[in-house]
Amino acid sequence: MGETVPVRWGILGAARIADGAVIPGMVKSAYALPHAIGARDRSRAQDMADRHGVPYAYGSYAEVIADPQVEAVYIALPNHLHIEWARRAADAGKHVLVEKPGAMRAADYAVLDGVDPSLKISEAFMVRQQPRWIRLRDILRSGEYGVPLTFSSLLSFTMTNGQDFRQQPEWGGGAYYDLGCYTAMAARYAFDAEPLRVFAEMERNAAGIDLFTSVIMDFGGGRQASFMVSLAQASSQSIQIVCERAFINLPQAYVPSHRDPNLILIDTSADHANSEITTLSFPALDQYEEEVTNFSRAVRGEKVPYFDLADARSNAAVCDAVFASANSGTWASVKGA
User: Fold this and answer.
1) For the segment 288-309, what is each residue's pLDDT rounded down to a tens digit?
2) Which fold has domain 128-285+316-333?
3) Angle, nearest 10°, between helix axes 181-191 and 309-328?
4) Which of 7, 244, 272, 319 gives 20 to 30 Å between its CA and that of 295?
5) DSSP class of residue 109?
């Protein structure tokens, strides 16, 4: 077995997600090497580079992309800048891991038409790299408990920073872009299918961002998903899936414990008064380390869980339908489904 050659990464943006999660994941990974950080304010990039032992700090995103040693780029910019810089990075021959949502509208992905097909370009849903999520999909695909028929999820927290870019509608602010893209992706992941139509209700604040969004997704064949996301209520994160012969629960579904085992609970009791629970336990983990490790391994040609641009386009098509439904007050079809 040959020696691991880590992928050299460039980071675009000095965002908290990069500083507190993704770069530490790279530092821990044997497959990833953070090589350069770029920010509009070079001092911020330098401070972050110094904290994490990253060799190079640049005062622009373009300088990171121009660095010939950078093989892959992680884009941690506000939502409205994701697609532009993904294209620039791809044109420079870099693989791209772009923070979610990869684009604010499905049509925006046309910017990436014609990129080198050998490049890996993926939307950064780190949760799909959890061993627990990978096992969940294997269970659902196996048919052991029959067909999965309903999916439900809650994902929320209270946003208190008035200067956060998520407060700006033109920058892709709001609960759906920040959280709903996760829950919609999770439903698609669980059903291993695309929804046919959606119904959505949004409560927006004076700035125009949605603070609460509730969605029903119709997958056809009796399969439905429902979820609620919010930036203005207590922290919650849950996934429940009901199959023909089992109720499957994922506690701490989106942000797993770094200390305690992470669980899948499978209840096969046919009686509400009783439980017959099988507990599957997975070691505590850093899912960002898993994310950058698997993406880096995909870059090296290894077979690992990898989600391409087609998947990102499909998630954006759901987003389009959600906003269309919220604006019209009626069901909206998911284009391409």
Assistant:
1) 999 999 999 999 999 999 999 9
2) Dihydrodipicolinate Reductase; domain 2 (3.30.360)
3) 120
4) 319
5) G
